[in-house]
Amino acid sequence: MSQSKEVKSSFEIFRQKVNIIIYGTNTFAGRLFDVVLLVLILLSVLMVMLETIDVVDEKYHTLLSVCEWTITIFFSIEYILRIISVKKPSEYIFSFYGIIDFIAILPMYLSFFVTGSHILSVVRALRLLRIFRILNLVN
Fold this sequence. Notes:
Layout: H1 2-23, H2 28-51, H3 54-85, H4 89-93, H5 96-110, H6 117-127, H7 131-138
């Protein structure tokens, strides 16, 4: 029984530390996290724009895809950590920014299953929703 409490308290400590980093703008780690997130959002938006230029996309398609997948994986981990770090996960999941965060990462995963240029342009547009995450950082 005490081991169960120990595991729970270890998880609680982890949850609190993650919460401070993700939501704590008054700590060095929190500010650094926000800056990294902002840079990744801007890079992601830039990559979406570059993919629309045929010459750039033809030459750097693989590099752009690898970068976009790397950023998407980071955002996916961040989304999961946000859910874990709050006391009531459903409040975050169904909040405006929780929905935006989910919709912003979903298109890359959908691109595995969806083919066709007209569908992929919709996927690109949905990825631009990441810019709304900047508003979350400002709040």
